Automatic annotation (TrEMBL):
<dbReference type="Pfam" id="PF22725">
    <property type="entry name" value="GFO_IDH_MocA_C3"/>
</dbReference>
<dbReference type="InterPro" id="IPR000683">
    <property type="entry name" value="Gfo/Idh/MocA-like_OxRdtase_N"/>
</dbReference>
<protein>
    <submittedName>
        <fullName>Dehydrogenase</fullName>
    </submittedName>
</protein>
<dbReference type="InterPro" id="IPR052515">
    <property type="entry name" value="Gfo/Idh/MocA_Oxidoreductase"/>
</dbReference>
<dbReference type="Pfam" id="PF01408">
    <property type="entry name" value="GFO_IDH_MocA"/>
</dbReference>
<dbReference type="InterPro" id="IPR055170">
    <property type="entry name" value="GFO_IDH_MocA-like_dom"/>
</dbReference>
<dbReference type="InterPro" id="IPR036291">
    <property type="entry name" value="NAD(P)-bd_dom_sf"/>
</dbReference>
<feature type="domain" description="GFO/IDH/MocA-like oxidoreductase">
    <location>
        <begin position="132"/>
        <end position="272"/>
    </location>
</feature>
<feature type="domain" description="Gfo/Idh/MocA-like oxidoreductase N-terminal">
    <location>
        <begin position="4"/>
        <end position="123"/>
    </location>
</feature>
Length: 352
């Protein structure tokens, strides 16, 4: 069997999830790893058996042996690396968010169209087993028309610092980092209706709260609390052409009693939750039913989500499947995220 040769660009925290999943796919050879930090690239290559390592992604892309790449770098580099990779004839799996701006998103889309190569956006929650189960129920009309969704991802203490809290490299705070996942999963399950307006608010009232003791939280590979110019809370109301609406709130830090992750969808025949755990709500014979599917993991299964995402990417590179998260969906998500930031800055609803 000939195996697809993969290069992973960016060897920080999330690259572990990509590399582990590639390792468990028989049709893949982990061929090269690149990071600005040479020691990190070298260590990861040794750990995952990659025969090549680089510190400049252009050198990795110049290697004609490589068929496809995962981009796991800071958000501000996604556009330039994705476009260079597509132009070098590689298929691309790019971590979320697709990039930082709508203009960059359009340039990536053009590069996909001109190169004829595949680009999959890392909307990993679409590939998670709980989402896939619920999608079958939705596709078979069990919820009817979904007219309202509500998604919350509140961290009471969880600004990861480093590049995440540096606007220039991240493009924003919890909205672009966490909001992208929960907005996307609602939008995907609602059938990706056309957005007509967004109204958003962002706040930076609490800072990163690096002063807090005795409570641990997720940190970037290069944690640094000295720079923080991103929002710590965002909320938004997104309206769709079919009359449906989506209400969302996300934070890096908030005076909340505990962290909260909830994703709920309401249709005219039934409802559903996928976070904190999968549940389907319906009515039969004048009785309300709360249905709990009997499955291994009712919540987001991190390892299975990434394995499915990577397997789907490889199947799509080999033209056996069509990606569930193509570049067009990444472009639409950038319009929503940037629309929310714009609405907040203007202090009014933004329409399109
Ligand atoms: N899907 C998910 O659930 C999920 C979770 C975490 C992060 N992410 C995304 O993954 C990306 C990386 O996040 P992370 O948590 O791994 O960050 P990280 O800071 O742990 O790692 C990023 C790595 O990229 C390297 N890097 C940056 N620019 C580079 C360049 N031009 N060339 C080569 N290497 C470069 C850095 O040196 C660092 O090692 C981000 O886009 C983030 O939004 C996705």
């Amino acid at each position: 069997m000939t195996r697809l040769k993969i290069g992973v660009i960016g060897a920080g925290s999330i690259s572990e999830a990509h590399l582990n999943a590639y390792l468990h796919n028989e049709e893949v050879e982990i061929y090269a790893i690149c990071d600005l930090n040479e020691q990190r690239a070298k260590d990861k290559s040794a750990k995952y058996g990659a025969s090549h390592y680089y510190t400049d992604y252009n050198d990795l892309l110049a290697n004609p042996e490589i068929d496809a790449v995962s981009i796991c770098t800071w958000n501000n580099t996604h556009a330039e690396i994705a476009i260079s990779a597509l132009n070098a004839g590689k298929h691309v799996l790019v971590e979320k968010p697709l990039c930082k701006t709508v203009e960059e998103a359009h340039r990536i889309q053009e590069a996909v169209e001109q190169s004829g190569k595949l680009l999959q956006v890392g909307f990993v929650r679409r590939y998670a087993p709980n989402t896939q189960i619920l999608k079958q129920f939705i596709d078979n009309g069990e919820l009817g028309t979904i007219y309202f969704a509500k998604a919350t991802c509140l961290r009471r203490l969880g600004n990861p610092g480093g590049w995440f809290s540096d606007q220039e490299r991240s493009g924003g705070g919890p909205l672009i980092d966490l909001g992208v996942h929960i907005i996307d999963i609602c939008w995907y399950l609602m059938g990706m209706p056309k957005v007509v307006s967004v109204s958003g608010n962002t706040y930076n009232r609490l800072g990163n709260r690096s002063n807090v003791n005795n409570l641990s939280f997720y940190k970037a590979a290069d944690y640094d609390a000295s720079k923080n110019n991103v929002e710590d809370l965002a909320n938004a109301l997104i309206r769709f052409e079919n009359g449906a609406s989506l209400l969302v709130d996300v934070s890096f830090t908030l005076h909340a009693k505990k962290d909260e992750l909830t994703v709920k969808l309401y249709g005219d025949k039934g409802g559903a939750e996928i976070e904190p755990e999968l549940a389907i709500i319906s009515e039969k014979y004048d009785t309300i039913l709360n249905v709990q599917p009997q499955v291994d993991n009712l919540s987001f299964d991190f390892a299975a989500g990434f394995q499915n995402e990577i397997n789907h990417f490889i199947d799509s590179c080999l033209e056996r499947k069509t990606t569930l998260s193509p570049v067009q969906h990444g472009v639409e998500m950038m319009k929503i995220l940037c629309g929310i930031y714009e609405s907040s800055a203007l202090g009014r609803e933004v329409n399109w």
